[in-house]
Protein 1
Amino acid sequence: MKSSERPLILVTNDDGIFAPGIRVLVEEMMAFGQVLVVAPDKPQSAMGHAITIHNFLRLRKVDFMDGVEAYSSTGTPVDCVKLAVYHLIKGRPALLVSGINHGSNLSINILYSGTMSAAVEGALEGIPSIGFSLMEYGIDASFEHTREVVRRVTRNVLGNGLKKGVCLNVNMPAASTGPIKGIRVCRQSLGSWEDAVETRMDPSGHAYHWLKGDFKSTDAGEDTDVWATSHGYASVVPVQFDMTDHGQLAAIKAWDHAL
Amino acid sequence: MKSSERPLILVTNDDGIFAPGIRVLVEEMMAFGQVLVVAPDKPQSAMGHAITIHNFLRLRKVDFMDGVEAYSSTGTPVDCVKLAVYHLIKGRPALLVSGINHGSNLSINILYSGTMSAAVEGALEGIPSIGFSLMEYGIDASFEHTREVVRRVTRNVLGNGLKKGVCLNVNMPAASTGPIKGIRVCRQSLGSWEDAVETRMDPSGHAYHWLKGDFKSTDAGEDTDVWATSHGYASVVPVQFDMTDHGQLAAIKAWDHAL
């Protein structure tokens, strides 16, 4: 098969182009097609769906891996998708994959996640898109046990396609919890964060603040991503971008709206 | 009524604490309760649901308006909500309002919008929350014609409450299109951006890139926010944060998931 006949696969992440997780993802994608990497030049975790409109962006070609064209960008994960689609490719890739994130993106964390926002941006562009996350934060996390899940989900998406406007949120348990038992298709759990603000004093005596928090899994349903991953499975959540609460339309229409 | 008996209303935005829109919103909120302002110290448009985890935050008390306690923050709109709830208030306000944004947040733009992400963060925290946006970008935009809509929606939310986890996305036509005809409760339209990247050369001969784009309203339904606002109405969309595509669960469960 000539290189030009292979499907083009766009790879990005939010931990930055030098994170180990993106290398594993690129290695796996090379079996499926021609790989283009466009990823942030520094960690961009928790950037959500941010895009850069008050500043310009730089793109730098980087030496990444044999046979892979790769660029680092000064922007967010969503910026990387836009730069790839509208500047580098000038068209849609056959597939967009984001990750493998160092850390989970379960439940409502999809809203904060740069990894998943890149996948949602792919869905907005009509590109079949998948975000992969490993439930382990460290730079030295082991990704070997995730490879078969990555391959299996990718093969299914390329083979079956995804409904337009839908992407997948895939979370995989850490290696320390044993081999992954299988894949479960789930709904997003509806937990919440119990946050805190830690205030410190700088050497000049001025206060500064760190956000911190603990995720509370208050939605224990066996059909959720939190349940699946805490029971040894990889979770796959189909994600869409209509945030309307259709069930609330009637109640709010009944209000008094006279001006 | 003593000040301590009045409901506490948290006001934030994404255009920064010095934008005219937030002043109009605070003026209106003072009729409903005790107002606390926590807003970014600089424009944070298009920051989406970004939060600051790799850096600390500063909070600075600012002279804003008689009778209003106000702080600027170095963070994003969502950071402002977290700083208010977990550091300044150490509890939930009775209401969170965000805006009035200089520029529309219709359709899928809720994903990119700092204004609406602050409201969604409020919903995640169980706070009745409303994002207000004016469909005019300029610093000298007129907000006078929006005051009655702001009052009416606020009165309804305080009087009727909102289902837990739901916030409202309110968009209001520009003054130039005439008086606002009324309020319509809508679903989020499903348009998309036709983006472009404009590449320029710096004086040293290195390329830099600006994102730009045009919103394409490809979803013309009369039940949408785009239809309502383009026909002279203010739109109110109830917004929730479950991004699961429940309709796709069965199709994806039918894939071959064997590992």
Note: The radius of gyration of chain B is 19 Å.
Protein 2
Amino acid sequence: MRYAVLGTGIVGRTVAARLDSLGHRVVIGTRDPGATLGRAEYSDWQEVHPEVGLAGFAEAARDGEVLVNATGGQEADAAHLDGKILIDIANPLDFSRGFPPGLDPVDDDSLGELLQRTFPGLRVVKTLNTMNCQIMVDPARVAGEHHVFVSGEDADAKKAVRELLHSFGWPEASVIDLGGIETARGTEMLLPVWLRLMSALGHTDFNFHIQGA
Amino acid sequence: MRYAVLGTGIVGRTVAARLDSLGHRVVIGTRDPGATLGRAEYSDWQEVHPEVGLAGFAEAARDGEVLVNATGGQEADAAHLDGKILIDIANPLDFSRGFPPGLDPVDDDSLGELLQRTFPGLRVVKTLNTMNCQIMVDPARVAGEHHVFVSGEDADAKKAVRELLHSFGWPEASVIDLGGIETARGTEMLLPVWLRLMSALGHTDFNFHIQGA
């Protein structure tokens, strides 16, 4: 499968590396490929992952069969996207009041819904946004059972995302389908307590488990 | 210990009954005791729990050594409250857009912080607001390990609340102290995903467990 991972930060790079290790063809999308390659953080990573491509957002999205949003928002180009799956693994972090960040949108809207409204031809599936990116691609980092949530309108798209999650190491029973894309409000609003748990626990190797589910 | 439970809904009644069963003296606070007794839901419950008192908010709060907030907000009277512990187990539900409710305040404030600001002489501890009220007072309803969060500024107040939680059946290891009252933002923002989990699972006998904590 050809994946376009939109976003060059630690989340995008971690997911791109995992997809690459599973044999997929991966292109990372960024606003300005030249500027991205000029950053040591990226170019050092690129040297270790020479087979992962880099392109502008529009080109990466056009080329990918499945898109993964690992940016805070609305960078994607709407051209040539109809019918594709957009896996939204991001949270709409709002640093305008400093750290810890809040969310924007929040409560009566979500990034997942915003993306689905902005690109009605895409089939948006929200998932993996409730944990550290190392756990996204390697759930066995956290011992014991824990959950990953899925939100989206399209049953076939959610089925395809489930299969991707299984290939990342998520057992069938660890996936909770919350329903439509509106339920992304709930999972995005886990971010504030996640940040405070990180502070209280002093690490990020934890995840939500819904006991009794 | 003398408890004042502010709020006559299912959450307040459930916690009041549990405190009563543990041998505490309990008075429920309400805006208008006559109107409350006129509602069959309350008077039927009162018949089964004749030893639980009912009084106006101010009188109940004045009489209680420890206060429990089980209302959406700002009903309490500030008189004679200095130094008391206020255990805030509520969420600031906002039904202005229908069901499922949103939260108000949200993201950059919380009910826990609002109560602490409004009554600086009280020692507010936010806890138990992340689960169904039956589980609050009987955590063994959910098999396996699961967590209850504590937020607040005063270490002694949090210690007293931990002891109350233990008496409800919460083991020491199940209590996660998130830090100051600001962390109530995080736990209140669990409500939206809780509501969507209730819909997806079809029941309320579940709770959050932080795997890896």
Note: The longest strand of chain B covers residues 25-30.
